[in-house]
Amino acid sequence: SMGICFVGKRNFENFILQYLQPRPGKFISIEDNKVLGTHKGWFLYTLGQRAKIGGLREPWYVVEKDGTKGDVFVAPRTDHPALYRDLLRTNRVHWIAEEPPAALVRDKMMECHFRFRHQMALVPCVLTLNQDGTVWVTAVRAVRALAPGQFAVFYKGEECLGSGKILRLGPSAYILQKGKSKSRVAIEGPSDGPGLGPVL
Question: In this structure, what CATH number is given to the domain that contains residue 21?
Answer without folding.
Answer: 2.30.30.280
